[in-house]
Amino acid sequence: MAHPGRVRPDACPGVFATHDAADGALARIRLPGGRVSAGQADVLASCAKELGDGSVHLTSRGNIQLRGLSRDTGELAARLTSAGLLPAPAHERVRNYLASPLSGLAGGLVDVRDAVFELDRAVCARPELAALPGRFLFALDDGRGDVSGEDADVCWRALDSATGAVLLAGRDTGERVPFAGAVDALVRKALWFLEVRGSAWRVRELDLPLGERLPTSPGVPIGPFTRDDGRAGVVGAPVLGQLAAADLRALGEVVVTPWRSVVVPLGLDVPGLVTDPDTPGLGISACIGRPGCAKSRADVRADARAVMRRVPAGVRMHFSGCERRCGRPHEPHVDMLAGTEEYQKGTA
Ligand code: SF4
Known about the structure:
This protein has helices at 38-51, 74-82, 113-124, 182-196, 245-251, 300-307, and strands at 19-21, 24-29, 35-36, 55-58, 64-69, 97-99, 138-141, 154-158, 163-168, 171-178, 223-226, 232-236, 242-244, 254-256, 262-264, 284-286, 317-320, 334-338, 343-347. By secondary structure, it is an alpha+beta fold. The protein folds into three domains: 1-86 and 222-277, Sulfite Reductase Hemoprotein, domain 2, CATH 3.90.480.10; 88-219, Sulfite Reductase Hemoprotein, domain 1, CATH 3.30.413.10; 284-347, Sulfite Reductase Hemoprotein, domain 1 (2-Layer Sandwich), CATH 3.30.413.10. A five-stranded antiparallel beta sheet has the order 1-2-5-4-13. Strands 3-14-15-12-11 form a five-stranded antiparallel beta sheet. The protein is globular and about 50 Å long. The structure holds iron/sulfur cluster. Iron/sulfur cluster is lined by residues 287-289, 293, 295-296, 320-322, 324-326.
């Protein structure tokens, strides 16, 4: 079995088990399919402003992090619970679900919006699944091949309007399951993983013969889009994935994508978001760096901002303050690693 010497559990933060950062406690709030209602956006904005650093930080799994919190997160947990954002405390760190962000709005073979909430309820109803590693990832792809490219541990991907493929670690298992059985299939795979995982955190760490990849598409394009019902929506990206609390409140209902952008289903007035796909620096991301992280060798976000105007929009670049490279993208990118005096530039 892989990683026989690994004895520690994964340290993925949540709300009840925060990460102790240099700028205070960091809490990660799981959003099934990245979905945030207008009421939840209001609560998250209040929490960020009154309890945190004034911003919400988007993650590469379509979740939100709050930083600069008190170590006692009782008040935060109470507010999130009242907003339906912490429905199952025992399962909070395993509620990691990607879903095609534009599903039900524009394109796609099926609408997976309800299925992702059904999946969340099914996972939280199984006490044994609370033992999944916090890194384990579920995905529901509506057929466009966006989130199935994120190498989720278990994924159902629509092949037509009725049937889909079951993927493990982003690879086709050959198993075909109707849409109505997608949630059951993913729960069964998660239970199987618990039985066989040993010390593994991810399916890809198992010594399994894995199938082929299905063709994928790269995320959701930045900019306005026309919904299937003829109305207008927009996809925008906050600079370096950091959105001011007031802007989140003004946006209202959003879908957070795994590519540090948000879908705003209705309306084109989107404060705090870059919506022009040709904006220089649009492809730049960065870990939190100094002063938020004690491990960082540089203020990487300031350094990233300093070069933004000179980096064409199509260039994917990630700045890291140390070798952990937190938040690095899955897709090929320019790797900017802070050294003691200058950055080491590479490709990854
Ligand atoms: S990559 Fe290193 S410096 Fe950056 S947030 Fe992660 S641990 Fe901190």
